[in-house]
Amino acid sequence: MRQLGWSLVMVLILSAVVSCGTATTDDTPDGVDEDTTELPDTIAAPDVTTPPAPDTGGEDAPPPLPDVIVDPPPGDVVAPDATDPDTLGPPPEDVEPGSDADVVADTTPAPDTTPDVEDDVPTVPPGQLPSFDDFPAPLFTASVTTVRAVTINGFRTDVDLHLPQGAEGPLPVVVINHGFQLSKNDFLPFGERLAQYGFIGVLANFDNNAFRPRNHSTLADDVVALITWIIAENERAGSPLQGRVDAGRIGAGGHSRGGKQAILAATRDPRIRASFNMDPVDSNPPIGGGAVSVTPEEMPRFTIPGVFVGTGKGAQGLQACAPPADNYDQYYRNSPGSSWRILIPNAGHNDFVTSCQQAGFSLACSACPRGDEPLWNARYTAYAMVAFYRTFLVGDASYRTWLDGPRAQAMAPWIEISTRLLPEHR
User: Fold this and answer.
1) Is 17 exposed, middle or buried (0-12, 13-18, 19+ CB in 10 A)?
2) Which pLDDT tens digit goes with each residue over 59-89?
3) Using an 8 Å Cβ cutoff, are 234 and 243 in contact?
4) What span, in angstroms and rounded, lies between the C-alpha atoms of 314 and 81?
5) Is 360 exposed, middle or buried (0-12, 13-18, 19+ CB in 10 A)?
6) Predicted structure pTM score
7) Which of 12, 265, 366, 403 could cross-link 387 (Cys pair, CB 3.0–4.6 Å)?
8) Which of 126-135, 220-229, 256-265, 381-390 has the least mean pLDDT?
9) CB of 251 within 8 A of CB of 275?
10) Cβ distance 353 to 373 under 8 Å?
11) What is the 3-class SS of 96-129, one letter each residue?
12) Radius of gyration of the chain (CA)
């Protein structure tokens, strides 16, 4: 009897389940799958606007930098064993790197200013990317020589020298530092562009990655050691730099962590006279010791002219590549010297990186949202870099308008340019 009772219970339960399923099926109109049945009129669908898909380049992507002419490398040059870059040479006027002697007494900058656009400067038609045809033409043809096996502050690396062919020395020098997990090859167009306008562009691979972390303070010392090597090569017979380096006109900057690296180096070495940086980030690495914060702690010593390019998409993403608390704006606001903030709203943090400018997957590039026009953004930044260094390392004021003047404002009105200038730079 007990078994018969349980059997009757099970039959009743199964009957109920079948009945529920049958009732649901009967409510579905004939010939319509259940998953595609329209909602009843009494339920309003939410008003959700789907954002447009990001620009991934494709067939309409702008062409690469067109007017960079690079001669074939004349060959590899091996650095001599006698070169010792670990010991700093005397800076100009015997000023010790990091001393107080090179700090300007009154460094209170002016409030933020945005220059007006003159009426006679043409503006850009809506929806059209501006060209750079009006920018001053290149002065030289660029070539690149790789010096191999250079010892820099305890590690060996290769150094690319972008040289202006036919330019008489001594010439100004600009060091460009790559960011974390990147390399010097990702910034070749910037070295080439600088050489076209009379600079020696220097790019090196710095010994730091996820598997061999090197703290940021040491990386700043690496930049100082690299400058010492450059000046020593100016005196070495047979060096591609022999007699070509002007030790009194040296600039240093970089991208992301490379920007932080250059800025910190400039607070320690007065031989660095100007600094242009692409979305510099003050964050410390997730692994490795020796954490150091540059802004605001170290910025009182950063008294040289400095540019801080920012990207509107740099703070986006689950793990922002340029978080607001550590980004370009913090450097700009805490710089006591003349400073420029150039915000490209539609740019991504890695738009300046050659390997990240084309569509496709890359582990280093995928961490940061891509900008709308990465190739154009990189070209604009390269020309702004030329204008900055021509103005403040060469002393050619005719380029200033392309940095923060009417030409810069009219060429790209959507780019936000702000300045905090000392009296001598207004």
Assistant:
1) exposed
2) 444 344 333 333 334 444 444 443 343 433 3
3) yes
4) 42
5) exposed
6) 0.73
7) 403
8) 126-135
9) yes
10) no
11) CCCCHHHCCCCCCCCCCECCCCCCCCCCCCCCCC
12) 29
- In angstroms, how far is CA 53 from the centroid of its own chain? 24
What is the band of 1 on the pLDDT scale with cuts at 50, 70, 90? very low
Compute the Cα dihedral for 131, 134, 135, 140 and give only its sign: positive
Structure tokens at 39: 């909602």
In angstroms, rounded to a whole number, what is the distance separating the alpha carbons of residues 14 and 17?
A: 5
Q: Report whether 157 contacts 233 (CB < 8 A).
A: no
| DSSP secondary structure, 240-274, as one string | TTTTTEEEEEEEEEEBTHHHHHHHHHHHH-TTEEE
Alpha-carbon gap, residue 367 to 382, rounded angstroms: 23
CA 189 vs. chain centroid, Å, equals 13
What gap in Å lies between CA 150 and CA 155, rounded to an integer? Answer: 8
Q: Which amino acid, one-letter code, is at 18?
A: V
Give me the torsion for CA of 317, 320, 323, 326, rounded to 10°. -170
Is residue 320 over pLDDT 90? Answer: no
Mean pLDDT, the chain, integer: 77
Residues 181-201: tens digit of each pLDDT: 888 999 999 999 999 999 999
Q: How far apart are CA 7 and CA 9, in angstroms?
A: 5
> CB neighbours of 2 closer than 8 A, spacing ≥ 6?
none
Rounded Cα distance between 338 and 424, Å, is 9
For 145-173, the pLDDT digits (tens) are 999 999 999 889 999 999 999 998 899 99
Which is it for the CA torsion 88, 89, 92, 93, positive or negative? positive
235: left (phi over 0), alpha (psi -120 to 50) or beta: alpha
pLDDT in tens, 393-416: 999 999 999 999 999 998 889 999
